[in-house]
Each structure stands twice: as structure tokens, then as C-alpha cells.
Design brief:
CATH superfamily of the largest domain: Dihydrodipicolinate Reductase, domain 2
Largest sheet: 8 strands, mixed
Bound molecules: nicotinamide-adenine-dinucleotide
CATH topology of the largest domain: Dihydrodipicolinate Reductase, domain 2
Strand content: 25-35%
Number of strands: 14
Distance between the termini: 55 Å
Order of helices and strands: EHEHEHEHEHEHEHEEEEEEEHH
Strand order of the largest sheet: 8-9-10-7-11-12-13-14
């Protein structure tokens, strides 16, 4: 049983995504154990609608850099110490804020991407190891029950030898000007593929196109080659006529299809493929079965996992090492993308 009263949490950044963290934390922790920092004063009213026991500060976090622990105490005298910080500010601020939090002795859950460049992620990872603090990153799909079920099935040899994986994450979605579609969407897919394969790619290739804004790719295709002839590709776009979130995982005995954008039957198992019988290649082609799974909330599972890692001193599933590997793939894909744009 998780002793949530032992977690004292600061959430830094409560914008579009960070507010989900606030609501989730409010469903898991005593409200007086939560304080929210967001430099936009309009956030206060939204926090008040969730709970009047959650404390709020509109001071931009950088101004709190010196003696952060003391400022937390002075500003919020009834909260004597924090052992957990969730950072959901824009990506370019992650490194500085996470570093300051860890130097002040706080365990950190920082949103994806961990930082913008691998060197900074490496510094955060080393800091967490030398200070013996938890560094976790919000790769939320690794807390999705369907992804956990797929991983379990692969480990139990349900689909045989893993051969290839692809992911489509497509929509006529919100376009961003501070990052391209690769950085906006692909961290989720890279994180899942890394988790399922359990290895690092030996080669990363990428291509893409910018149509709506100059130099900001609306659509990208990334190819990953792993040891043992495992291949993967990731197709992301916010310039697409309909929403599709589909991941297909192929093995030599069967296949999974995971479609998170569907309302029902999100995960299917297909017993399809080819096998050699007396030197002849034969197709096997059975109908699919729906795999049911418990409908848990990935963000709540992610936060619980963070709190458990602090209270039980365990390594988070999406630790700094995992996040650094995801970032290194993003970094390599970006270099390929910028070298070979279809403009
Ligand atoms: N895990 C996921 O599925 C997921 C989904 C969406 C976004 N994200 C990530 O969450 C992060 C935030 O994204 P968003 O869409 O919520 O952005 P946003 O711009 O809507 O919100 C950022 C918030 O941070 C606040 N802020 C900025 N600098 C601050 C500072 N120094 N001190 C205090 N507050 C500060 C802003 O006032 C704003 O409210 C990004 O890293 C993004 O990639 C993750």
C-alpha cells in the first residue's frame, strides 16, 4: 500500500499538460501536500477549481534558484519539505529547472523530452546517480496497460521472434512552432519501441517535409535498425486527414495491433505469418482475437510509479537512462532529417 502521505510534491508548470498532472496528483495525494508553481497568474483560478488546499505560486521558477528548499519553506510555511517535483514546463527549460531541483535534493519527474540535447540529459542522469535521487521522465505510454500487455506477451514468446514494429501517429492536429512533428509525437513511439525491443538501434535514418511553416517538419518518417535483424519505422504527421494512432508489432508466430485512437478493441492479436513445412513456405492466417486489459489511467500509473520509486528506493521504468536513449535517437533522426529534407 502506497503511503501517499509521505510524498510532498511540487509541480512546476501547469499549462495544457501540467494541469493533467495537477488533477492526477490531487486524486492520489493529500491536497495540502501539493504546491504548484506556474508563472502564468491565470493558472491560480484553475487550481482553485480543483482544490483550495493546493498551494500556488506565480513566481517564475528561475527566480527561485538560490536556496530553493528554503524558499519553498518560507513561501509555504505549512509544507516543511518536498521530496518530489514534477516539471511540466516547455522543453527548453527542463534542463535548468531539473538541475536546480536535484541540486536542492529533490527527486524529479520531468516531462518528455528530458532535455533538448543529449549532453544535458547525460548531465542530469549523472547528477541523479551521484546524488542518489530519482530521475524519471514522462514517457507515459510505458504506463499504458496495452503496452505492458504487449511487452509481457513478447517475453512469453506469444508472437515468437520479434521481427519488425511500426507506428503511425497521424492527425490534422495542433501545429507547434517551437518544435516539429518528430519532437512533438515521436518520443512516445521511440520510447515504446525501445522498451519492446530492449536494445539500442545500430542505425537511425529519417526523412520528412515542411509545408505549413518554414523549416518545421509537419511529417516525418524515421527508420530504426536493431541487432538481430529487428527493424522499426515511425510515421508522424499533424498534416493528415484523419486521426490514427496505430502500432503494429510483427513476430514469426503472430502479430499485435494496438490502436489507442479506437474506443473499443484497442489491442488485437493476429495468428498470422509464414512457416516452412518440408522446405515449402506456407502461410498461416487465422482470424484475430481481441486482447482485453484493465483500463487503468496511464498518467495516474506513471505518478504512482514515481512515488513508489521514491518510497521504496526502486529504479523507475522510464529513468534517466531510458530518456537519454530516446533523446539520442531523436537527435540522430533530426540530423538525418535536416540533411535530407524533401523541400
Ligand atoms: N507526456 C505527454 O503525453 C505530454 C503531452 C503533452 C505535453 N507534454 C510535455 O509537457 C511539457 C509542457 O507542455 P504543455 O503543452 O503543457 O506546455 P504549455 O506551454 O501549455 O505549459 C507550460 C506551462 O509552464 C509554465 N512555465 C513556463 N516557464 C516556467 C517557469 N520558469 N516557472 C514556472 N512556470 C513556468 C507556463 O506558464 C505554462 O503554463 C512539454 O515538455 C511537453 O513536451 C507531454
Amino acid at each position: 500500500m502506497l503511503k501517499t502521505e509521505n510524498i510532498k510534491l511540487a509541480i512546476i508548470g501547469a499549462g495544457r499538460w501540467g494541469m493533467n498532472h495537477v488533477k492526477t496528483a490531487a486524486s492520489l495525494l493529500p491536497h495540502e501536500n501539493i504546491v504548484v508553481f506556474d508563472s502564468n497568474p491565470e493558472t491560480e483560478e484553475k487550481i482553485r477549481q480543483i482544490s483550495d488546499k493546493i498551494q500556488y505560486s506565480s513566481l517564475p521558477f528561475f527566480h527561485l534558484s538560490r536556496g530553493m528548499g528554503n524558499i519553498f519553506q518560507r513561501e509555504h510555511s505549512n509544507v516543511d519539505d518536498f521530496n518530489a517535483v514534477i516539471i511540466a514546463t516547455p522543453a527548453e527549460t527542463h534542463f535548468e529547472i531539473a538541475k536546480k531541483c536535484m541540486l536542492a535534493g529533490k527527486n524529479v519527474l520531468v516531462e518528455k523530452p528530458i532535455t533538448l540535447v543529449p549532453e544535458e540529459a547525460e548531465e542530469l542522469l549523472n547528477l541523479s546517480l551521484s546524488l542518489n535521487l530519482k530521475l524519471m521522465v514522462g514517457h507515459v505510454l510505458l504506463f499504458h496497460p496495452a503496452v505492458l500487455r504487449i511487452k509481457d506477451g513478447i517475453e512469453k514468446n506469444e508472437i515468437g521472434k520479434l521481427q519488425y514494429i511500426y507506428s503511425n501517429r497521424l492527425n490534422l492536429g495542433a501545429i507547434r512552432s517551437e518544435e516539429n512533428a518528430l519532437w512533438s509525437f515521436a518520443p512516445h513511439d521511440i520510447s515504446v519501441i525501445q522498451y519492446l525491443v530492449g536494445d539500442n538501434p545500430t542505425d537511425v535514418q529519417a526523412n520528412g517535409g515542411a509545408y505549413v511553416q518554414n523549416g518545421i517538419e509537419d511529417t516525418t518518417m524515421t527508420f530504426l535498425s536493431y541487432p538481430n535483424n529487428v527493424k522499426a519505422h515511425i510515421f508522424v504527421s499533424w498534416l493528415h486527414p484523419f486521426k490514427e494512432q496505430r502500432m503494429v508489432i510483427i513476430g514469426d508466430k503472430g502479430m499485435y495491433v494496438f490502436e489507442d485512437s479506437l474506443k473499443t478493441e484497442k489491442l488485437k492479436f493476429y495468428k498470422k505469418g509464414f512457416k516452412e513445412v518440408d522446405g515449402v513456405i506456407e502461410k498461416f492466417d487465422a482470424d484475430y482475437e481481441v486482447i482485453n486489459f484493465e483500463e487503468t489511467m496511464p498518467l495516474a500509473e506513471e505518478q504512482k510509479h514515481f512515488y513508489e520509486s521514491i518510497l521504496n528506493n526502486t529504479t523507475p521504468r522510464t529513468d534517466g537512462k531510458h530518456a537519454l536513449e530516446v533523446l539520442e535517437i531523436l537527435d540522430k533522426a533530426t540530423k538525418k532529417l535536416k540533411g535530407g529534407m524533401m523541400e
